[in-house]
Amino acid sequence: KQEVTQIPAALSVPEGENLVLNCSFTDSAIYNLQWFRQDPGKGLTSLLLIQSSQREQTSGRLNASLDKSSGRSTLYIAASQPGDSATYLCAVHSGGSNYKLTFGKGTLLTVNP
Amino acid sequence: EAGVVQSPRYKIIEKKQPVAFWCNPISGHNTLYWYLQNLGQGPELLIRYENEEAVDDSQLPKDRFSAERLKGVDSTLKIQPAELGDSAVYLCASSITPAAAEQFFGPGTRLTVL
After folding, report:
1. Is the model's pLDDT at A50 over the cut of 60?
2. Own/partner pairs for B93-97, CB < 8 Å, 24+ apart?
3. How confident is the model at residue B58 (pLDDT cuts 50, 70, 90)?
4. In B, which residues are within 8 Å of A106 by CB distance?
5. Which of A69, B57, B59, B110 is the most exposed place for a label (fewest CB within 10 A)?
6. How many CB atoms lie within 10 A of CB B14?
7. Is the pLDDT of residue A102 over 80?
């Protein structure tokens, strides 16, 4: 059974700082990994999707890496802004016939002005 | 392009009452998912549809939960009767295909059972 762990559970940083969110998963047989953002009381917004054959994906100030063999992914946020404050969720898309996203519990990020 | 639409956004009911949630996926997305998200947790899959067929409902508590997607487009998730422990956010998502496809989520329905 796939398990996804996100560290840290919460992070508070001053505006402008670069930061890294971590995600680890137990079964390396994955199709892809997806990073989401969730604002309070809202649904999930997809940030980046990394296919299993890729090492990283970039979108603006966000960069996500994937090391499938070690079961790890990181989300790097450059020059953080107060508007980046949200919960960031990592989800792994399992292989085989079970096309299922397994989520971590998320990292609550607060960027202070 | 319109995103995934869900209604209602919020619902408060007494325990033992029935409740239904509606979802309209992104146009052209054949795969539809219902997820349950408890406070402080990541979403967990309840059921996945390929067009009108429920191909994975192994996590759906079938004694009280049911779902349908009759024409392969919009979908309804029902709980009858609701219990206190059902209070959570119910999320709907869609994708073009299930295999290695990016999933897009709706805003969710926050259910409170009193």
Report:
1. yes
2. B93/A44, B93/B4, B93/B25, B93/B32, B93/B33, B93/B35, B94/B4, B94/B25, B94/B26, B94/B29, B94/B31, B94/B32, B94/B33, B95/B29, B95/B31, B95/B33, B96/B28, B96/B29, B96/B30, B96/B31, B97/B30, B97/B31
3. confident
4. 42
5. A69
6. 9
7. yes
Which residue type, as a one-letter code, is found at position B9? Answer: R
What does the angle CA B94 – CA B97 – CA B101 come to, to the nearest 5 degrees?
80
Give the whole-number percent of chain B exceeding pLDDT 90.
80
Q: Which residue of B has its CA nearest to A3?
A: B42
Distances (CA, A) of A61 to A17, A18, B10: 12, 10, 33
B45 with A104: Cβ contact below 8 A: no
Work out the mean pLDDT of chain A and round it to a whole number: 93
- Locate the chain A residue with the closest alpha carbon to B98: A99
All residues of chain B having their beta carbon less than 8 Å from the beta carbon of residue A93 are 100
Picking from A92, A105, A106, the residue whose alpha carbon sits closest to that of residue A34 is A92
Q: Smallest Cα–Cα separation from A51: which of B95, B97, B102?
A: B102
Closest approach of chain B CAs to the CA of A51, in angstroms?
A: 8
Q: Mean pLDDT over residues B32-46, rounded?
A: 94
At residue A28, the 3 state secondary structure works out as coil
Which residues of chain A does B11 touch, with a Cβ-Cβ cutoff of 8 Å?
none
User: How many other β-carbons are positioned within 10 Å of the β-carbon of residue A100?
Assistant: 20
